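My main concern about presentation is that the manuscript never shows what a single data entry looks like. An entry of this sort, consisting of the sequence and the corresponding backbone structure tokens, reads as follows:
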Amino acid sequence: MKIHLSLIGMGAGHPDHITRQGMAALQRAQLVLVPHKGAEKADLAELRLELCRQLLPPGNAVVAPFDMPVREGADIDYLGAVDRWHDAIAQIWLDTIARHLPGGGAVALLVWGDPSLYDSSLRIAQRLAQRVQLTTTVVPGITALQALTAAHAIPLNDLNAPVLITTGRQLRERGWPAGADTVAVLLDGQCSFQTLAPEGLHIWWGAFLGMPHQLCISGPLAAVSETILRERAQARARHGWIMDTYLLKRVTDDET
């Protein structure tokens, strides 16, 4: 079986977030894979399906939802659990492709944000390449960090200064990264900024970035932390899901 897989960045899920290159790749596909992550996150699958309805000509491709496997508990063996989870997803991709496109062909997958930044699609594709003859094309999308800084109208970095990009898990387990003044945090469902001493920290937080119901809050961490927690919980209850990210920066008295 020969498969050409297009991983297409879709930003936060707004049709305008997909580039013309991404739209062309989607419209070349014979099969579009749509992951379904259970009833609690059904809206995530529905957003992808709505994008397909808006951007695909009728009858252009088979749109195939598939159930995502549940990742096992990972308190002790996080990397091992993720590795086994990726294996299971690759097998489901293969089974779904074989069922709908047994002769091979062009397959597309819409990826939140950009496939190159804190997303597992490329790692799963590497597993698929061990089982079929696969070529992979990545179509870049709008990253959460681009959407966040645009929403707050701020640059990502200070003049001649680096930025460290990390995850909520790393922030919880290791604290503030040594030597960093600016930290961008992704994949943080537990609001790990709560674990930091807030003095001298400023936060720029955003959820549903680029969407009509976008939320943005910024200010000294000590002053806005509770507001972020409250607004985040209310938004998640309203929509059934939430995707958010934030930038933390050490500030001096002159900057506050």
Q: What stands out?
A: The domain at 144-250 is CATH 3.30.950.10 (Methyltransferase, Cobalt-precorrin-4 Transmethylase; Domain 2).
